């Protein structure tokens, strides 16, 4: 007979070898915390929203005054309104996805829902990075076009000592560009690592299931 | 928390715990990991329990949630170093007259099953549990035809591992 058939025959008769938990053992488990992947995706996405929100509070007062002085005040308020509206939409989507995930679905359906959730997170990340890049580029274009004012208020607000305007602007833009690049690379790396670890097994298994259907 | 709901859940899980143990044994390599996965499955079952309406058998519903957890939600299984699994080695044939080669072959078959990927393992598990292809396809979310084709391929694969 085929070995798999033999194994099947033995399979049920092995049950007495299995561990036996008591009612109390199982009852105690109900009180323990889950460590499921869904929970982590949800927590991390909430942490991300908090992170981006907190970041806004860490803009120093001098920098805020500087923005006001050079006439960016209204523009920045506009940017913030748009930004937080989009955040609101994302929070709603995260919550909806989280609720939709139900372990009673078929394995494939469950994976699809989790990957959908992941996709929302991905869009959130892409939005944040894109918004970051656009803002950095936009502001720098503004600085570039208004070099005289920028230089004037830089000296007033930050008390930068005597240095020629041309030299100052060169250093200024160099720092802006470097800082922007470092920031973006850091964010991309962070997401790659966090979600890479979290999603590796799920992605592999989902591909395996898709393969069956081809 | 609803005491009555808790009581009926724990009682039913206690009665059907073998299903969960068998999945844990197949998907983990040591008793720590076994207990860890058992606990995670219990938590997921309990969480999904309010939605269990009893239109299917408790055990049928359990297969689905437990495998969901082992394959999709649980992350720790790959972390432990892969060692020769004690349960697999000590696998015994109880009813067939003692035959060294037959036992050897069964051990081999069991460890070959354990070495399959998560999805193939789930198919074989449901097959060993004597589930029909409709139930297998519903649990995994693939069509019945695909489940059948896939199962035949796995059987073929296992056969070549055992008899190279």
Give a verbal description of the structure:
The complex is a heterodimer of chains A (214) and B (164). Chain A is an all-alpha fold and 214 residues long. Chain A has one domain. Chain A contains 8 helices and no strands. Chain B has a domain at 1-83: Orthogonal Bundle (Rna Polymerase Sigma Factor, Chain: A). In chain B, helix 3 crosses helix 4 (58-73) and helix 7 runs antiparallel to helix 8 (133-140). Chain B is mainly α and 164 residues long. The radius of gyration of chain B is 17 Å and the shape is globular. The chains are: A mainly alpha (214), B mainly alpha (164). At the A-B interface, helix 1, helix 2, helix 6 and helix 8 of A face helix 1, helix 2, helix 3, helix 4 and helix 6 of B. Chain A: Keywords: Membrane, Transmembrane, Transmembrane helix. Chain A: The chain crosses the membrane at residues 37-59, 71-95, 121-145, 171-194. Chain B: This is Sigma-70 family RNA polymerase sigma factor. Chain B: Belongs to the sigma-70 factor family. ECF subfamily.
In CATH, what is the class of the domain at 1-83 in chain B?
Mainly Alpha
* Rg of chain A, nearest Å: 27 Å
**What is the H/E order of chain B?**
HHHHHHHHH
Protein chain pair with the most extensive contact, residues per chain: A-B, 50 and 75 residues
Oligomer: heterodimer
Total number of domains of chain A:
1
- The secondary structure category of chain A is mainly alpha
Instruction: Give the SSE order of chain A as H and E letters.
Output: HHHHHHHH
Distance between the termini of chain A: 31 Å
In short:
Chain B: Residues 112-158 form the RNA polymerase sigma factor 70 region 4 type domain. The complex is a heterodimer of chains A (214) and B (164). By secondary structure, chain A is mainly alpha-helical.
